[in-house]
Each structure stands twice: as C-alpha cells, then as structure tokens.
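Worked problem 6 (solution included).
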Amino acid sequence: MAIQFQQDSEETEISTINTTPLVDVMLVLLIIFLITIPVATSSVAVQLPKQRVEIREVSPNDVVISVDQNGHIYWHDHPLQNAAELSGRLREAAARQPQPTIHVRGDQRARYDGIGRILYACQVAGIAKVSFITEPPAAGG
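Solution. The predicted structure is:
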C-alpha cells in the first residue's frame, strides 16, 4: 500500500491497488490464448487405427468380396449383377453355422460408396464378422 504524506505531516494510507501490472499480464495471457486455442481445436479428435500386419487365417467357409476401381462388386472373383444379389448371398451366408467371416478387398482407387454398400448389406444381413484385406507396408517404411 502506498502512504501519502499531507501537509500537516500526518500519514494516511491510500487504499487503492495499482492494477497496471495486472492488466499487462492479463493482456499477454489473452493474446497467448487467442493464438494457441485455434491451433489446439482445429481438428476433430479421432483415434486413428493402427496399422498392423496379421497372418490371415483362411477358412473354407470365409467369403471374399472385392470391389474394383469402377465400383463393380465380386463374390469370390465372380461378378455380381446388383445389390439385391449381394444381399441375397449375404443372407444365405448369415444363416450358415458357423457364420463365415466376410473379407472385403477394395481397390485403392475405388470410391468409398462401393465399400459402404457392402458394409451396409452385411449389417442388414446380420453378418457378425467383417474384415478388410490390405497390403502390408513396404519394408522399412
């Protein structure tokens, strides 16, 4: 606190606080937050899948569905005519005991809607296990 001297030599206290340093610190913190908050919140928080190489155990009951770059769907390398044929085959596969695993092979240049149609058809048919077949990364990279 500051002490003020008056003319009659009596000391009186000034009960005001000097807020200039407080304002300076607050302005600096405000600028720091304005700069760092957009950087921290600029992307959606998602947990990306980790790539791993697993040996695929193939069962004779498993089904491989492929999608080429043009969006054509293949059931064990045999082309399917339409989505109704895919749905019918998936319902038959879902009824088998034990239920087969569906392996989806998608061309890297294929549009996502071809893969999405397969996943939706698997969900509607009641398929419990769907996996994706990918190529392992290059050695050393």
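Discussion: The longest strand covers residues 63-67.
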